[in-house]
Amino acid sequence: MGIADRKERDKEELREKILHAAKDLFLIKGFEKTSIRNIADQIEYSPGIIYHYFRDKNEIFHALHQEGFRQLMAKMSVLASVRNPIERLKAMGSIYVSFALENPDMYDLMFIKEAPIDHVIDLEHDDWKEGGGTFNFLRGTVQESINLGYFKGHDPEALSYMIWSVVHGMVSLSIRKRCDVVLASRKDSIVSDALDEFYKIIDRL
Amino acid sequence: MGIADRKERDKEELREKILHAAKDLFLIKGFEKTSIRNIADQIEYSPGIIYHYFRDKNEIFHALHQEGFRQLMAKMSVLASVRNPIERLKAMGSIYVSFALENPDMYDLMFIKEAPIDHVIDLEHDDWKEGGGTFNFLRGTVQESINLGYFKGHDPEALSYMIWSVVHGMVSLSIRKRCDVVLASRKDSIVSDALDEFYKIIDRL
DNA sequence: TTGGATTATTAAACAGTGTTTAATTATTTT
DNA sequence: AAAATAATTAAACACTGTTTAATAATCCAA
């Protein structure tokens, strides 16, 4: 079935081209300001073609969303070798924050934008659960820490959510420029400074 | 100058009507999905009139943004009577979170949406600074706590940003439905559970 | 009270959006 | 080579924020 295969590959190729163009444009102009026509112009096809590869603009969103999670998980995977769960926890925080600050638009897409999460819930729920996912990695690390005697009296799941909230809060306030108003002078360092404050607290528990 | 006054009042009245309609619609449909024409329909005027009262859609955003901050600050003001800064800190967290969960769309507008923050920075910077503002209230409370011997070795400003990040992170992940995917079973209670975890940590410092 | 200036309001248009439709071109199968 | 199928497009639809010029309403001075 070599011919069918090649056809399949050709189709996949154009799909990737659309996705690539979409990502490029969105990193420059932002997601909502990137139009279907912009993407079509970029790949030198007519706008209509995009609807043969994606149901709507949200499905492009969703595909990029998945790619972002693959990237983040790849960055996290180096932590498998860190034995001490508290050390791993802190390293996770640093990786999470640096991923967000180095790829603010991708982070925005993954964790801030409202777009089609309903869609994501349906389609990605299984991926999340079986694939482990970043949150389960965090929850596991917290559980390990508790097993070693840290975080006494804490609920592992709620504590994990709190920890996620700290790092997400820091980077999302920064990305959406909410600290510029109130912390203009140190807006470039405040996130890493605040992360250090959090590490100090962890060390004292 | 009674006539000029009345004219002024009439103008103000329509301005308020636009704002009211905009807020109503936006609470139902969301901000981006509320169009100028929708607002015009609601108040039974033509779309063009809105541009005689607001420069553009962002200026409506900005007006609602200010209203939200007035609301939040009003809720916070009851805390002036709480003497113990640690108690006040925790009460602030609870008020902040409940404000966000009770007015998710308003919170979204104030702290999550990207819209015209540049505009806000220019216009609102002074309000923020002199009027105190929520963040300065937090910073002051943290400073008071430090003066009383709490949070030893911490930088008050960075610590304040970290604390803000915790509560903002919790509610914004919830509002933007990022916990639904990963914590479906307890998505309604996770925010308050996580806040409790944070309080436990504060109590142990 | 009337006429002119000013102001408030509107209708219509512009350039853009996501999406759908039917028509066209290209490719594959018979 | 003809018929069937698939890929691609042009054109339209109903919407968006915003601007323009024209209209309607109001005010102010003579």
Automatic annotation (TrEMBL), chains A, B:
One of its GO terms (molecular function) is DNA binding. Keywords: DNA-binding, Transcription, Transcription regulation. Residues 12-72 form the HTH tetR-type domain. Residues 35-54 bind DNA. It comes from the Bacteria. This is TetR family transcriptional regulator. It comes from Algoriphagus boseongensis.
